[in-house]
């Protein structure tokens, strides 16, 4: 019986007797998986333990981190033992459970990416509506729905895989029925959990980019019109400096999430393409080095997101530093990290989104109207 090596992230005839293959595969997978497990665990911890990190977008990032942890543990680590030993060592229950959790992590990660893209679209393109729609409570309900529905969907794999014995008595977690019967399932997974989310995110980020570009132009025009009244760029508490900071923060958050989506598409394309190709071939293409490359790309996708957060988000970077050196780093370092990550005081509203504080020096009349316009411009969901 054919094994599911063109589908599963672990199983299959991928272990060569060549020492160099074993060394490279074990070292590479262990390096990527260890980095990813540590990084995604830190993401979960900093969001759960830091009150100022409790935002709708970060809730989806926690969901993505948990899904990536499942992929790394259920797919990456068993791949190491598969390379070292050369056969399946986790028994029948391990075959069912590991396959189930592989697909659970994969599918939840794509749904989480789609969810934070939709949230980002509403927060930027419909900022006033976002105050009631993009809340932490609603994000938690959506995440619970994603995990619940995906968990039920992935139960299908309990009936599709089984433990097989080859002629050389080597155990393999493989197909339970003929491989031809799995094509509709692969096509459904490929369409629902890869193609559809990517198409939707591309369209939404197109709208987001247009709104941010238009906001920058209208913001400059409005600020120039306000300068003759004495409220220039350098005026204390001026709307221009605060509005400029708001726009910069929104662009930074959107740019970071767009990079997450882009890397998801790039790193998953080799493996998804190989799976789709092998689903139509009578004799699957199972070159061990090609499979190692495709699988390593998948593991790298699950491991790289915390690195992106650290490089592109000042708030995450400060939170990571505080988590790592909360006692060793003195108050000065923590203050410097917070100062670099926030250009003005921000507070969480009951709706779950954040609104910039305009200060106590707001005037009445026309100036107050201008402040209201500034307040609307400054609404955003911060990371």
UniProtKB/TrEMBL annotation:
Residues 39-309 form the G-protein coupled receptors family 1 profile domain. The keyword Phosphoprotein does not apply. SUPFAM superfamilies: Family A G protein-coupled receptor-like (SSF81321). The keyword Transmembrane applies. One of its GO terms (molecular function) is thyrotropin-releasing hormone receptor activity. It is a multi-pass membrane protein. Residues 227-248, 346-369 are annotated as: Disordered. This is Thyrotropin-releasing hormone receptor. It comes from Myodes glareolus. The lineage of its organism: Eukaryota, Metazoa, Chordata, Craniata, Vertebrata.
């Amino acid at each position: 019986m054919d094994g599911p090596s063109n589908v599963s992230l672990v199983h299959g005839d991928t272990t060569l007797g060549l020492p160099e293959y074993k060394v490279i595969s074990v070292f590479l997978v262990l390096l990527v998986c260890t980095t990813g497990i540590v990084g995604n665990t830190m993401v979960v911890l900093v969001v759960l333990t830091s009150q100022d990190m409790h935002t709708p977008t970060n809730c989806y990032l926690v969901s993505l981190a948990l899904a990536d942890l499942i992929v790394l543990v259920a797919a990456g680590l068993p791949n190491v033992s598969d390379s070292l030993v050369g056969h399946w060592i986790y028994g029948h229950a391990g075959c069912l459970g590991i396959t189930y959790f592989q697909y659970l992590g994969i599918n939840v990660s794509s749904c989480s990416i789609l969810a934070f893209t939709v949230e980002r679209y509403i927060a930027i393109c419909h900022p006033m509506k976002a105050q009631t729609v993009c809340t932490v409570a609603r994000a938690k309900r959506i995440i619970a729905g994603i995990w619940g529905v995906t968990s039920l969907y992935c139960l299908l794999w309990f009936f599709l895989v089984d433990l097989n014995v080859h002629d050389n008595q080597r155990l393999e977690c493989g197909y339970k029925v003929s491989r031809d019967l799995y094509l509709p399932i692969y096509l459904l997974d490929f369409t629902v959990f890869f193609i559809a989310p990517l198409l939707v995110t591309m369209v939404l980020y197109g709208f987001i980019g247009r709104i941010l570009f238009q906001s920058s132009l209208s913001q400059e025009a409005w600020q120039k019109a306000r300068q003759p009244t004495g409220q220039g760029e350098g005026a204390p508490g001026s709307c221009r400096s605060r509005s400029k900071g708001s726009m910069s923060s929104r662009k930074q958050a959107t740019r970071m999430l767009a990079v997450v989506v882009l890397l998801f598409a790039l790193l998953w394309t080799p493996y998804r393409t190989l799976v789709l190709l092998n689903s139509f071939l009578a004799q699957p293409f199972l070159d061990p080095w090609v499979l190692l490359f495709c699988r390593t790309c998948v593991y790298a996708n699950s491991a790289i997101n915390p690195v992106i957060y650290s490089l592109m988000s000042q708030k995450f970077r400060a939170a990571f530093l505080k988590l790592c050196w909360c006692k060793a780093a003195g108050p000065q370092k923590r203050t410097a990290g917070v100062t670099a990550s926030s250009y003005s005081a921000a507070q969480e509203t009951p709706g779950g989104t954040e609104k910039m504080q305009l200060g106590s020096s707001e005037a009445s009349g026309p100036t107050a109207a201008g402040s209201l316009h500034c307040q609307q411009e400054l609404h955003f969901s911060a990371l």
